[in-house]
Amino acid sequence: MSYSTMTLLGPDDDWAAHELDGVFLHDKRLDKRAALILQTLFRQTTESIPTACHTAAEVKATYNFFSNPKVSLPALLAPHFQATLQRVRREPVVIAIGDISELDYTGKQVAQDLGLIGDNHTRGLFLVPLLAITPERVPLGLVDVYSWLRQPSAFNAQQRKRQPLIEKETYCWLWEYQQACQLAVDAPDTQIVYLTDRGGDLFEVYYEHFQRAERPHAEFVIRAVAHDRRLCATNAAGQEQCAHLFAELNKQPALAEISFTLPGTAAHPSRKVKQTVRATTVMVAAPERPDHSVADTPFNVVLLTEMAPPAGEEPLEWMLYTSLPVSTIEEVQRVIDIYLSRWDIELFFKILKSGCRVEGLYLQTPDRLYNCLAFYLIITWRVLYCTRLGRACPDIPCTAVFTEVEWKALYLIEVGDELPDKPLTLQAMVHLVGRCGGFIGRKGDGEPGITSMFVGLRRLYDYALAYQRFGPEVRRAFT
Q: Terminus of the chain with fewer CB atoms < 10 Å: N or C?
């Protein structure tokens, strides 16, 4: 991968100030405090706020910041969104991945002011971040964040169906796609592809793309629900279609066969998967809506069906809806590759919950909680960025991400030899950070994972602090 200056966000000393550059909290002292808090929480990501802040005065200042009425999640994230846009503008293609996650605060004081997230006994909030990444899986940052609290419904199922979409929770998928389209408007030289899983299989999204055909818009790749959609009599080219989608797909010839290894889980071991690939363009009949807000819409469909699955296993089948071309196997492969990058949003949520431990925050009001979440959303992106950039740009100097003190301290502790004449490569540095967190680095182990990077980054801060206080430069100054 070739990299540009925008990809390199500067070492730890610089990145927090860069991501909050231009933050406006109506008080310069608050603006300055925001960058300090972001740096502090990042350096001790897995620790509680009192542990990360070290001193009683710093702890009090941090909690006072979260409580300040001038501080809000939109104001804190606005400069990060702008920084993301600047990075997006320097890329030819960007994938905007969306998904929903529940944050559970049941049993904490703040829970009484939050909404339902499951049964009547679990309370929390719903979070919908839109994450921009490159096709090489380097995360560029958050495009926007949507959140809501679920209140007990006064409507039955039939009444809810008649509600306008904007009053439903499923509106979040259309909102995400509209934000991706706005990103396409703001970055006109970059192709934006909106990507999400089956929850986002919403006809309004496809119709929105159709409506924007003559204006700047985002393309889409969405894994479909196994629903046999009703088709129009003819497609956009005037060719006759079957009455329903599955029949239309099954009459298409197989474009190719693909093979890959399906990762194992606790319940199922990894296994080889072989799938046939079919693709076509269809004109889908509009579903019934009380306000008649949608009409018949064309889009492309890719169907991947497993051949001869093991005994007792369900065939692995993916159906992808897309606005990207699918007339050749190369075009279909690109759609599949884009869909496979959806795993990055799952990693994002894993970092946010398991690494940053945001569900363990003890903040007494929703406003304080949201203000703190703003920092951890940026930190989550930063950790994912450090992990991914080492894979995408392994040979660049590690000083693109880490400070001189950090790489020197880590090298002396993990390797123990004299320092090299020039900084390590980024890949070598990421491997050392991972080693601090338990990454062994045996042949076949691949690259360090999220958990080892989390632990390693936390220890790296301690090593760097010790190096600053007691390292070779300090000792020479006293001899």
A: C
